[in-house]
Design goal:
It is a single chain. This protein has 61 residues and is mainly alpha-helical. Helices cover 93% and strands 0% of the residues. It is rod-shaped, with a radius of gyration of 26 Å. InterPro entries: Flp_Fap. Keywords: Membrane, Transmembrane, Transmembrane helix. It comes from Sphingomonas cremea. This is Flp family type IVb pilin.
Length: 61
């Protein structure tokens, strides 16, 4: 039982885990922001590629 208490005290005093969680949350928020930006820009980019495909098809005929 004493060993469990000692390990518990060591884990509470270790701050590295907290830092890793904070960085993980920051990365997750950045990924969500990137996905939102790509989703909002996706329609415009899709239309651009369709127009380009149409022009290439017309030029090759």
């Amino acid at each position: 039982m004493l060993a469990v208490r000692t390990i518990g005290r060591k884990l509470r005093s270790d701050k590295r885990g907290v830092t890793v969680i904070e960085y993980g949350l920051i990365v997750a928020l950045i990924a969500i922001a990137i996905m939102g930006a790509l989703r909002s820009l996706g329609g415009g980019a899709g239309g651009m590629w369709s127009k380009l495909d149409q022009k290439v098809s017309e030029a090759s005929n």
